[in-house]
Amino acid sequence: MNQLLAMSVMRGLINGGKHSIGYARTLVRCHPNDWDGDDMPLLGLRMMVMMSSYSSSSESVPEKVKEKGENGIVPSSYWGISRPKITREDGSPWPWNCFMPWETYRADLSIDLKKHHVPTTFLDKVAYRTVKLLRIPTDLFFQRRYGCRAMMLETVAAVPGMVGGMLLHLKSLRKFQHSGGWIKALLEEAENERMHLMTMVELVKPKWYERMLVLTVQGVFFNAFFVLYLLSPKLAHRVVGYLEEEAIHSYTEYLKDIDSGSIENVPAPAIAIDYWRLPKDATLKDVITVIRADEAHHRDVNHFASDIQFQGKELRDAPAPLGYH
Fold first, then answer.
1. Ramachandran area for residue 323 (φ above 0: left; ψ -120 to 50: alpha; else beta)
2. Distance CA 195, CA 274 (A)
3. CA pair distance 12, 106, nearest whole angstrom
4. Sign of the Cα pseudo-torsion (310, 311, 317, 318, in order)
5. Is there a contact between 241 and 131 (Cβ–Cβ < 8 Å)?
6. How many angstroms separate the CA atoms of 205 and 81, rounded?
7. Which residues contact residue 164 at a Cβ distance below 8 angstroms, ignoring those fewer than 6 apart?
8. Axis crossing angle, helix 18-30 with helix 40-64, rounded to the nearest 10
9. What is the CB neighbour count within 10 angstroms for residue 193?
10. Residues whose CB is less than 8 angstroms from the CB of residue 60 and which lie 6 or more positions away in sequence, other chains included
């Protein structure tokens, strides 16, 4: 009996498996009355099994749990997912998790900021008048507080790309057809607008009532735009195109206030320097300039998308402007 027990224990130790060790421990514990003077070596073996089990469980922790991050969060490598070591061009560690170095870019500042789609059709005029009407309460509430205004508008501007990309994604799944790259293009737009917001939050700390306003406006606008895109994608894209034209105007006024000294030209946030590959000594003016250029590109993309559909075609019939910044 004891020889069988000893063999079971040794087999568990040799195999190094938790179940084998646990089985041996169970056998040892289930036969306490079988011990006699000649079995004292098995007592040592029992202790060795227990110590081996404890050591095995404790040594498995470092394999699964690595060193703590900056915020004290312990990332687990149990699933084999780990972030590779990423550095900036100067060799310093890459500090951002929300975007990677290969997602950064230098904004095209040569884009024509004065382009305007003249409303001709009935839907064009509906879109144009709707946007002009929405600007009235915005002007009354924010007046010339362009920092708060930009922060609020970016929470809205990041919605259309996400809604459009999501609905095109679902359409692609339903109809078993490609999107022509438009899903990715619209999601890129949404992500770019979100990065505008992340930058503005570093510059302007929203107050509690502004956060409540964001919740309200986002809830209303998301659902309204969702329904609009279902009913008429071409009208939805035209509305966004005109919204971007208004954004260009707002950021131009923002730059005028910076140039006049009404708004202090503070240093650019670190996230903006890395995202747009700005020089280390970049300022708020540089940040607003590249954001305005982004909005001009979004204006072109959405007016282009609307034009495609006004011609009776689908978006997938025309190549999507991927990476158009």
1. left
2. 11
3. 61
4. negative
5. no
6. 34
7. 182, 186, 229, 233, 236, 237
8. 150
9. 25
10. none
* Eight-class DSSP state of 317: G
Residue 28 has pLDDT above 50, yes or no: no
Nearest CA to 322 among 156, 181, 214?
A: 181
Burial 161-190 (b: 16+ CB within 10 A, else e): bbbbbbbbbebbeeeeeebbbbbbbbbbbb
Instruction: Determine how many CB atoms are found less than 10 A away from the CB of residue 273.
Output: 19
Q: Are 97 and 281 in contact, with CB atoms under 8 Å apart?
A: no
User: Measured between alpha carbons, how far is 2 from 288 in angstroms, rounded to an integer?
Assistant: 81
Which SS3 state, helix, strand or coil, does residue 36 take? coil
pTM: 0.75
Tokens coding 54:
């404890």
Specify whether the backbone of 176 is left (phi greater than 0), alpha (psi in -120 to 50) or beta.
left
**What pLDDT, in 10s, does the model give residues 136-169?**
888 888 877 888 888 888 999 999 999 999 999 9
CA dihedral 291, 292, 294, 299 (to 10 degrees): 150
Most confident of 15-29, 206-220, 268-282: 268-282
DSSP label of 87: B
Asked if pLDDT for residue 24 goes beyond 80, the answer is no
**296-300-306 Cα angle (round to 5):** 140
